[in-house]
């Protein structure tokens, strides 16, 4: 149910989210080398109809297509089956954003996959984790942080002037 790869297919840089199911075949965790080896962990497409993060990452990777990334990136491309249908999730699926380890959700293949992703990333010791979602409400853009320290606040400020601590 999970692919793990160390390179981005050429087609990925021009793909639409609807194409990812055919291109990747399954949710995929990419590990990309960078000058600083401690990775940034990025999650996107946890909801298939929230495409902003995918296109932002795609633009970033295009920018560095002919030069090294400044930092290693571990990139999790999540619910590509729902993305193909422009749906948050498919009827038979769990919500990918509600099944991370520690959730009280029933066991499922998707929850098992998130445990694998978490175990892999725990060993890689990322310097930060970014989970990019669309914001469809009438609220301003905001960044969420769960550790209140100067580093977290600086990172959050790169995304928005508003940070929500939870």
N to C succession of SSEs: EHEEHEHHEEHE
Cα end-to-end separation:
31 Å
- Looking at how many chains there are and whether they match, the oligomeric state comes to single chain
Query: Considering DSSP H and I runs of 4 or more, what fraction of the residues is helical?
Result: 25-40%
* pLDDT < 50 stretches: none
Q: Determine and state the CATH class of the largest domain.
A: Alpha Beta
- How many H/I helical runs? 5
List the helices and strands and how they pair.
Blueprint: E1 3-5, H1 20-24, E2 28-32, E3 34-44, H2 52-63, E4 69-77, H3 80-84, H4 109-124, E5 128-131, E6 143-145, H5 150-157, E7 163-165
Parallel strand pairs: 1-2, 3-4, 3-5, 6-7
Antiparallel strand pairs: 2-4
Q: TL;DR?
A:
With about 170 residues, the chain is an alpha/beta fold. Helix content is about 30%, strand content about 25%.
What does this structure look like?
With 166 residues, the chain is α/β, with parallel strands linked by helices. It has two domains: 3-134, 3-Layer(aba) Sandwich (Aminopeptidase); 139-166, no CATH class. Helices cover 28% and strands 23% of the residues. The protein has five helices and seven strands; from the N terminus they run E-H-E-E-H-E-H-H-E-E-H-E. It has helices spanning 20-24, 52-63, 80-84, 109-124, 150-157, and strands spanning 3-5, 28-32, 34-44, 69-77, 128-131, 143-145, 163-165. The protein has a five-stranded mixed sheet, with helices on both faces. Helix 1 (20-24) links the parallel strand 1 (3-5) and strand 2. The model has no long low-confidence stretch (mean pLDDT 93).
């Amino acid at each position: 149910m999970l692919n793990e790869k160390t390179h981005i297919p050429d087609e990925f840089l021009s793909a639409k989210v609807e194409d990812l199911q055919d291109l990747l075949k399954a949710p995929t965790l990419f590990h990309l080398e960078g000058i600083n080896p401690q990775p940034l962990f990025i999650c996107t497409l946890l909801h298939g109809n929230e495409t902003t993060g995918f296109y932002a990452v795609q633009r970033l990777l295009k920018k560095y297509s002919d030069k090294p990334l400044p930092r290693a990136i571990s990139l999790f491309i999540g619910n590509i089956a729902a993305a193909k249908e422009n749906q948050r999730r498919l009827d038979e699926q769990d919500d990918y954003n509600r099944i991370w380890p520690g959730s009280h959700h029933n066991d499922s293949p998707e929850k098992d996959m998130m445990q694998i992703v978490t175990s892999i990333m725990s060993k890689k010791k990322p310097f930060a984790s970014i989970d990019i979602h669309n914001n469809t409400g009438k609220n301003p853009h905001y960044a969420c942080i769960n550790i209140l320290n100067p580093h977290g606040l600086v990172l959050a400020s790169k995304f928005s002037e508003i940070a929500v601590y939870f």
